[in-house]
Each structure stands twice: as C-alpha cells, then as structure tokens.
Design a protein that fits this description.
Blueprint: H1 13-37, H2 48-54
Amino acid sequence: MGPITFTDSASSVFVQIADLVAYNTLLQFRMHGGEWEEPTGNSLPLYEHFRNVAALFDRGPQQQISGYGVAKWPVEKKIGWVFPEKA
C-alpha cells in the first residue's frame, strides 16, 4: 500500500461520487441520528437523498445495513436496520 494522497473532487469523478455518498450519509445522521438507536416506530426515517444510495451499501446475513454498510460510532444500542433491496 502506498502513501495516502488527497485530491480535489473537481479533478476526479470517483471522489465526487464518494463525496455525494458521504454527504448524504452525514445528513441522514444529522436529521435522524437519534432514531438509529432509539426508534420511534417500526421503520427508520430516511433522508430523501440517503434513500437513493441506501440500497447500494453492503449488508449482513439478515440483510441489515447497520453495522455492515453503515456504522454509527459510538453506538450504545445496535438495531439491525434493513433498508430497501439492492438494485
């Protein structure tokens, strides 16, 4: 493995995609972070644009995304959220 390098996202379409996924994941936790550990219902509210990428994250054996494709840290109470099927 070589040294870590950084690049301006304007010069790389792959970095732009990573920025979009990371930003929408950040907004998911800013808007609905409390529900990640303390659900108010049977389903997790999803930020509109996070919903578009949620199906692309890795999943666990029971199709749960929490702790596999997306991990909140620190986490006190782990709930096995299952999101829409992969496309």
